[in-house]
Amino acid sequence: MTGEIIQAIGNSKKSAMNIKGETVIVKKTAEEVFTFFIDLHNFKKIMPDTIQKFEVDGNSFLFGLPGMPEIRLVLTKKTEFSNITLGAASSKLPFTLAADISVLSEKNTEVTLNFEGDFNPMMTMMIKKPLTKFVETLSENISKL
Q1: At residue 113, does pLDDT exceed 70?
Q2: What are the structural domains, with CATH classification, of the chain?
């Protein structure tokens, strides 16, 4: 019983943070976009210009940006031609970054990035603005593919 109460209190201190990127149109088929995303090396092409480190290791990659700790993302889910989801390798900052892929026409595909995380209010205040900028930059760079 006590464990349940402590867990409930701990959970109440965290709140969901959702950041939805702008939906962008890529002049490629959904299959081409999906194939681009499942090759994790390609994520370097959509990272901000200020990236300081980028290393792929199997089904994950590590990246570093100025003023932020290095982050390892792991490919956690892929639904053929419609979704790629990456999750944080560390349980200290639990979050996912999903790319939702939708067919518009034979050679036009919509991509929307969705960031979801559970953070305490102080952490949310500190990271919401830089994370929003990060998702915006990724979305903008995806539109240039």
Answers
A1: yes
A2: 15-142 (3.30.530.20)
